[in-house]
DNA sequence: CGTAGACCCTGCGCGC
DNA sequence: TGCGCGCAGGGTCTAC
Protein backbone atom coordinates (compact mmCIF):
# COMPACT_ATOMS: atom_id res chain seq x y z
CA UNK A 1 0.00 0.00 0.00
CA UNK A 2 1.39 3.33 -1.02
CA UNK A 3 1.03 5.44 2.09
CA UNK A 4 1.59 8.90 0.66
CA UNK A 5 2.63 11.81 2.77
CA UNK A 6 -0.78 13.31 3.25
CA UNK A 7 -1.58 15.79 5.98
CA UNK A 8 -1.38 13.27 8.85
CA UNK A 9 2.09 12.12 7.81
CA UNK A 10 3.31 15.69 7.63
CA UNK A 11 1.80 16.51 11.01
CA UNK A 12 3.37 13.46 12.63
CA UNK A 13 6.68 14.40 11.06
CA UNK A 14 6.32 17.94 12.38
CA UNK A 15 5.69 16.70 15.91
CA UNK A 16 8.65 14.37 15.70
CA UNK A 17 11.03 17.03 14.42
CA UNK A 18 9.68 19.48 16.99
CA UNK A 19 11.29 17.32 19.66
CA UNK A 20 14.59 17.03 17.82
CA UNK A 21 15.44 20.21 15.95
CA UNK A 22 14.82 23.40 17.90
CA UNK A 23 18.09 24.79 19.24
CA UNK A 24 20.17 23.03 16.60
CA UNK A 25 22.28 25.14 14.28
CA UNK A 26 22.86 24.41 10.61
CA UNK A 27 26.56 24.34 9.86
CA UNK A 28 26.49 23.52 6.20
CA UNK A 29 23.96 23.29 3.39
CA UNK A 30 24.46 20.78 0.62
CA UNK A 31 22.38 21.44 -2.49
CA UNK A 32 22.90 18.15 -4.28
CA UNK A 33 20.61 18.41 -7.30
CA UNK A 34 19.18 21.13 -9.55
CA UNK A 35 15.83 20.96 -7.86
CA UNK A 36 12.53 19.15 -7.55
CA UNK A 37 9.31 20.29 -9.19
CA UNK A 38 10.90 23.73 -9.12
CA UNK A 39 14.60 24.52 -9.41
CA UNK A 40 16.33 25.11 -6.10
CA UNK A 41 17.41 28.62 -5.21
CA UNK A 42 20.81 27.47 -4.04
CA UNK A 43 21.83 30.89 -2.76
CA UNK A 44 18.74 31.26 -0.61
CA UNK A 45 19.02 27.72 0.75
CA UNK A 46 22.71 28.19 1.47
CA UNK A 47 21.91 31.32 3.47
CA UNK A 48 20.52 29.00 6.14
CA UNK A 49 24.05 28.01 7.09
CA UNK A 50 24.88 29.42 10.48
CA UNK A 51 21.20 29.84 11.41
CA UNK A 52 19.65 28.28 14.50
CA UNK A 53 16.32 26.45 14.33
CA UNK A 54 13.56 28.02 16.39
CA UNK A 55 10.56 25.79 15.72
CA UNK A 56 8.38 23.84 13.31
CA UNK A 57 5.00 24.60 11.86
CA UNK A 58 2.70 23.04 9.32
CA UNK A 59 0.25 24.54 6.83
CA UNK A 60 -1.63 22.11 4.59
CA UNK A 61 1.06 19.60 3.57
CA UNK A 62 3.83 22.16 3.81
CA UNK A 63 6.33 21.88 6.64
CA UNK A 64 7.96 25.06 7.91
CA UNK A 65 11.31 25.09 9.68
CA UNK A 66 11.57 28.51 11.32
CA UNK A 67 14.95 29.99 12.18
CA UNK A 68 15.75 32.42 14.92
CA UNK A 69 15.56 36.10 14.07
CA UNK A 70 18.89 37.82 13.65
CA UNK A 71 19.96 41.19 15.04
CA UNK A 72 19.13 42.89 11.80
CA UNK A 73 15.52 41.78 11.77
CA UNK A 74 13.24 38.84 10.98
CA UNK A 75 14.27 35.24 10.62
CA UNK A 76 14.20 32.83 7.73
CA UNK A 77 11.98 29.84 7.10
CA UNK A 78 12.72 26.67 5.21
CA UNK A 79 9.57 25.44 3.47
CA UNK A 80 9.38 21.76 2.50
CA UNK A 81 6.67 19.88 0.62
CA UNK A 82 7.09 16.12 0.31
CA UNK A 83 5.06 15.70 -2.87
CA UNK A 84 4.39 12.06 -3.59
CA UNK A 85 7.51 10.38 -2.39
CA UNK A 86 9.49 12.82 -0.29
CA UNK A 87 11.14 12.02 3.03
CA UNK A 88 12.60 14.61 5.34
CA UNK A 89 14.57 12.79 7.97
CA UNK A 90 17.38 13.08 10.43
CA UNK A 91 20.25 10.74 9.67
CA UNK A 92 23.27 9.94 11.81
CA UNK A 93 26.52 11.55 10.69
CA UNK A 94 27.92 8.27 9.40
CA UNK A 95 24.88 7.48 7.28
CA UNK A 96 25.94 7.40 3.62
CA UNK A 97 24.27 9.63 1.10
CA UNK A 98 20.98 8.17 -0.06
CA UNK A 99 19.88 7.71 -3.59
CA UNK A 100 17.74 10.70 -4.58
CA UNK A 101 19.09 12.81 -1.73
CA UNK A 102 18.53 16.32 -3.06
CA UNK A 103 19.20 18.47 -0.03
CA UNK A 104 21.22 17.95 3.11
CA UNK A 105 21.63 20.21 6.14
CA UNK A 106 24.56 19.40 8.38
CA UNK A 107 23.66 20.16 11.99
CA UNK A 108 25.89 21.10 14.89
CA UNK A 109 24.89 17.78 16.45
CA UNK A 110 26.68 16.00 13.62
CA UNK A 111 23.40 14.68 12.26
CA UNK A 112 22.23 15.36 8.76
CA UNK A 113 18.76 16.62 7.99
CA UNK A 114 18.06 15.47 4.48
CA UNK A 115 15.39 15.59 1.83
CA UNK A 116 15.11 12.40 -0.22
CA UNK A 117 12.54 12.34 -2.99
CA UNK A 118 12.66 9.78 -5.84
CA UNK A 119 9.78 11.14 -7.88
CA UNK A 120 10.75 14.76 -7.39
CA UNK A 121 7.24 16.09 -6.97
CA UNK A 122 8.39 17.76 -3.78
CA UNK A 123 9.43 21.32 -3.16
CA UNK A 124 11.88 23.17 -0.94
CA UNK A 125 12.72 26.83 -0.65
CA UNK A 126 13.93 29.35 1.89
CA UNK A 127 12.35 32.74 2.43
CA UNK A 128 12.03 35.41 5.09
CA UNK A 129 9.41 34.24 7.59
CA UNK A 130 7.51 37.50 7.28
CA UNK A 131 6.95 37.02 3.54
CA UNK A 132 5.40 33.56 3.72
CA UNK A 133 1.78 34.67 3.90
CA UNK A 134 2.15 36.34 0.52
CA UNK A 135 4.10 33.50 -1.06
CA UNK A 136 2.25 32.23 -4.16
CA UNK A 137 2.62 28.62 -3.01
CA UNK A 138 0.71 29.37 0.16
CA UNK A 139 -1.50 32.38 -0.47
CA UNK A 140 -4.47 30.59 -2.01
CA UNK A 141 -4.62 27.57 0.27
CA UNK A 142 -7.99 26.63 1.71
CA UNK A 143 -9.00 26.19 5.33
CA UNK A 144 -7.29 23.77 7.71
CA UNK A 145 -9.59 20.88 8.66
CA UNK A 146 -8.73 21.45 12.31
CA UNK A 147 -9.75 25.11 12.12
CA UNK A 148 -12.87 26.05 14.06
CA UNK A 149 -14.29 27.62 10.91
CA UNK A 150 -14.30 24.28 9.12
CA UNK A 151 -17.81 22.89 9.43
CA UNK A 152 -20.84 22.00 7.34
CA UNK A 153 -21.84 25.61 6.80
CA UNK A 154 -18.43 26.40 5.40
CA UNK A 155 -18.71 23.57 2.88
CA UNK A 156 -22.20 24.54 1.90
CA UNK A 157 -21.25 28.17 1.39
CA UNK A 158 -18.18 27.31 -0.68
CA UNK A 159 -20.12 24.78 -2.74
CA UNK A 160 -22.37 27.55 -3.98
CA UNK A 161 -23.58 26.75 -7.47
CA UNK A 162 -20.61 24.63 -8.30
CA UNK A 163 -20.94 21.62 -10.53
CA UNK A 164 -19.07 18.41 -10.34
CA UNK A 165 -18.89 15.48 -7.94
CA UNK A 166 -18.39 15.87 -4.23
CA UNK A 167 -15.14 13.93 -4.23
CA UNK A 168 -13.44 16.34 -6.63
CA UNK A 169 -14.73 19.24 -4.54
CA UNK A 170 -13.36 17.63 -1.39
CA UNK A 171 -9.91 17.29 -2.93
CA UNK A 172 -9.79 20.95 -3.99
CA UNK A 173 -7.02 22.45 -1.89
CA UNK A 174 -8.37 25.93 -2.37
CA UNK A 175 -11.46 24.87 -0.41
CA UNK A 176 -9.97 22.68 2.31
CA UNK A 177 -6.37 21.53 2.54
CA UNK A 178 -4.86 18.17 3.36
CA UNK A 179 -7.49 15.88 1.85
CA UNK A 180 -5.71 13.84 -0.79
CA UNK A 181 -7.08 10.90 -2.70
CA UNK A 182 -6.78 8.41 0.13
CA UNK A 183 -8.48 10.48 2.80
CA UNK A 184 -11.09 11.80 0.40
CA UNK A 185 -12.20 8.20 -0.18
CA UNK A 186 -12.10 7.42 3.52
CA UNK A 187 -13.99 10.56 4.55
CA UNK A 188 -16.79 9.94 2.06
CA UNK A 189 -17.13 6.36 3.21
CA UNK A 190 -17.33 7.46 6.82
CA UNK A 191 -19.95 10.06 5.91
CA UNK A 192 -21.88 7.50 3.81
CA UNK A 193 -21.85 9.86 0.84
CA UNK A 194 -21.42 8.56 -2.69
CA UNK A 195 -18.29 10.09 -4.28
CA UNK A 196 -20.06 10.85 -7.58
CA UNK A 197 -22.89 12.84 -6.03
CA UNK A 198 -23.09 16.35 -7.50
CA UNK A 199 -22.33 18.92 -4.84
CA UNK A 200 -25.67 20.61 -5.54
CA UNK A 201 -27.50 17.59 -4.14
CA UNK A 202 -25.90 17.76 -0.71
CA UNK A 203 -27.92 19.44 2.00
CA UNK A 204 -26.86 21.06 5.24
CA UNK A 205 -26.91 17.87 7.25
CA UNK A 206 -24.78 15.96 4.72
CA UNK A 207 -22.24 18.75 4.58
CA UNK A 208 -21.99 18.71 8.35
CA UNK A 209 -21.49 14.96 8.39
CA UNK A 210 -18.83 15.26 5.73
CA UNK A 211 -16.91 17.99 7.58
CA UNK A 212 -17.07 15.94 10.79
CA UNK A 213 -15.87 12.88 8.90
CA UNK A 214 -12.91 14.67 7.32
CA UNK A 215 -11.77 15.89 10.70
CA UNK A 216 -12.29 12.51 12.34
CA UNK A 217 -10.45 10.58 9.64
CA UNK A 218 -7.47 12.92 9.72
CA UNK A 219 -7.37 13.03 13.52
CA UNK A 220 -7.47 9.26 13.68
CA UNK A 221 -4.64 8.93 11.18
CA UNK A 222 -2.52 11.40 13.13
CA UNK A 223 -3.19 9.49 16.32
CA UNK A 224 -2.37 6.16 14.74
CA UNK A 225 0.74 7.54 13.11
CA UNK A 226 1.92 9.03 16.34
CA UNK A 227 1.60 5.74 18.16
CA UNK A 228 2.71 3.31 15.50
CA UNK A 229 5.76 5.08 14.19
CA UNK A 230 7.71 6.93 16.83
CA UNK A 231 10.90 6.86 14.81
CA UNK A 232 9.29 8.30 11.71
CA UNK A 233 11.89 11.05 11.53
CA UNK A 234 14.90 9.89 13.45
CA UNK A 235 15.15 6.28 12.36
CA UNK A 236 17.91 4.84 10.30
CA UNK A 237 16.92 6.85 7.29
CA UNK A 238 14.85 4.08 5.80
CA UNK A 239 11.80 4.50 7.97
CA UNK A 240 8.76 4.54 5.73
CA UNK A 241 5.48 6.30 6.00
CA UNK A 242 3.23 4.95 8.65
CA UNK A 243 0.36 2.70 7.76
CA UNK A 244 -3.09 3.51 8.95
CA UNK A 245 -6.16 1.35 8.87
CA UNK A 246 -8.17 2.18 5.77
CA UNK A 247 -11.75 1.15 5.18
CA UNK A 248 -12.02 1.43 1.41
CA UNK A 249 -8.88 2.83 -0.21
CA UNK A 250 -7.14 0.26 -2.43
CA UNK A 251 -9.62 -2.39 -1.29
CA UNK A 252 -11.56 -3.07 -4.47
CA UNK A 253 -13.48 -6.33 -4.15
CA UNK A 254 -12.94 -6.61 -0.41
CA UNK A 255 -15.96 -6.46 1.89
CA UNK A 256 -17.10 -3.13 3.22
CA UNK A 257 -16.21 -3.03 6.93
CA UNK A 258 -19.71 -1.74 7.65
CA UNK A 259 -22.01 -3.83 5.46
CA UNK A 260 -19.78 -6.45 3.79
CA UNK A 261 -20.79 -5.49 0.26
CA UNK A 262 -17.71 -5.59 -1.99
CA UNK A 263 -15.90 -2.29 -2.36
CA UNK A 264 -16.00 -0.85 -5.87
CA UNK A 265 -13.62 1.38 -7.78
CA UNK A 266 -14.34 4.18 -10.20
CA UNK A 267 -12.17 6.81 -11.83
CA UNK A 268 -12.80 10.50 -11.21
CA UNK A 269 -10.55 13.21 -12.60
CA UNK A 270 -8.08 10.51 -13.57
CA UNK A 271 -7.88 9.24 -10.02
CA UNK A 272 -9.11 6.03 -8.47
CA UNK A 273 -12.05 6.32 -6.12
CA UNK A 274 -12.94 3.48 -3.80
CA UNK A 275 -16.39 3.31 -2.23
CA UNK A 276 -19.13 1.05 -0.96
CA UNK A 277 -22.06 0.98 -3.40
CA UNK A 278 -24.50 0.04 -0.62
CA UNK A 279 -23.45 2.32 2.25
CA UNK A 280 -22.68 5.40 0.24
CA UNK A 281 -25.56 7.28 -1.33
C1' DC B 1 -14.53 31.68 -13.14
C1' DG B 2 -15.02 26.69 -12.80
C1' DT B 3 -14.10 22.48 -14.45
C1' DA B 4 -11.49 18.83 -16.87
C1' DG B 5 -7.45 16.94 -18.47
C1' DA B 6 -2.33 16.80 -19.22
C1' DC B 7 1.91 16.76 -17.18
C1' DC B 8 5.88 16.23 -14.10
C1' DC B 9 8.67 11.60 -12.23
C1' DT B 10 10.37 7.01 -10.57
C1' DG B 11 9.37 2.59 -8.45
C1' DC B 12 6.78 -1.21 -8.33
C1' DG B 13 3.68 -4.93 -9.58
C1' DC B 14 1.96 -7.51 -13.00
C1' DG B 15 1.80 -10.37 -17.22
C1' DC B 16 4.19 -12.80 -20.59
C1' DT C 1 14.25 -14.90 -14.54
C1' DG C 2 13.78 -10.76 -16.85
C1' DC C 3 11.79 -7.27 -19.25
C1' DG C 4 8.38 -3.91 -20.61
C1' DC C 5 4.35 -1.75 -19.68
C1' DG C 6 0.86 0.65 -16.96
C1' DC C 7 -0.33 2.63 -12.81
C1' DA C 8 0.16 5.44 -8.68
C1' DG C 9 -0.64 10.42 -7.01
C1' DG C 10 -0.18 16.37 -5.41
C1' DG C 11 -0.10 20.31 -7.38
C1' DT C 12 0.13 23.33 -11.25
C1' DC C 13 -0.66 24.67 -15.85
C1' DT C 14 -3.45 24.98 -19.97
C1' DA C 15 -7.62 24.59 -22.65
C1' DC C 16 -12.31 25.19 -23.03
Write a compact overview of the structure shown.
The protein has 281 residues and is of the alpha+beta class. The chain has helices at residues 7-20, 42-46, 152-159, 166-170, 181-191, 204-228, and strands at residues 26-31, 53-59, 62-67, 76-81, 87-91, 101-107, 112-116, 123-128, 264-268, 271-275.
Question: What would you note in describing this structure?
Answer:
With 281 residues, the chain is of the alpha+beta class. It contains 6 helices and 10 strands. A 4-stranded antiparallel sheet has the order 1-6-7-5. A 4-stranded antiparallel sheet has the order 2-3-4-8, covered by helices on one side. It has a two-stranded antiparallel sheet with strand order 9-10. The longest helix is centred in the C-terminal third of the chain and has 25 residues, at 204-228. The protein is elongated, with a radius of gyration of 20 Å. Mean pLDDT is 89; it is low at 230-240. It binds a DNA duplex (16 and 16 nucleotides) through loops.
Q: Unreliable segments (pLDDT under 50, ≥5 consecutive)?
A: 230-240
Shape: elongated
Task: Tally the beta strands.
Answer: 10
Q: Overall mean pLDDT score?
A: 89
Number of distinct helices: 6
Give the end-to-end Cα distance, rounded to a whole number of Å: 27 Å
From the helix content, strand content and strand pairing, which structural class follows? Answer: alpha+beta
Q: Which percent range fits the helix content? A: 10-25%
The major sheet is characterized as: 4 strands, antiparallel
Roughly what fraction of the amino acids lie in strands?
15-25%
Gyration radius over CA: 20 Å
The string of secondary-structure elements, in order, is HEHEEEEEEEHHHHEE
Strands of the widest sheet, in order across it, are 1-6-7-5
Amino acid sequence: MPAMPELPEVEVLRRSLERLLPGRRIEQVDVRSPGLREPFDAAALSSLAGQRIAGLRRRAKYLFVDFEAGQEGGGLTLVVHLGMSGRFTLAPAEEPTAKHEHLAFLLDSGQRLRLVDPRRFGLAFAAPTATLDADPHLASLGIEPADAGFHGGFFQQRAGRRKGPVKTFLMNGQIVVGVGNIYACESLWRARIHPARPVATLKKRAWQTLADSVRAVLDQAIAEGGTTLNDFADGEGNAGYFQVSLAVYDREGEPCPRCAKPIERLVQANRSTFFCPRCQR
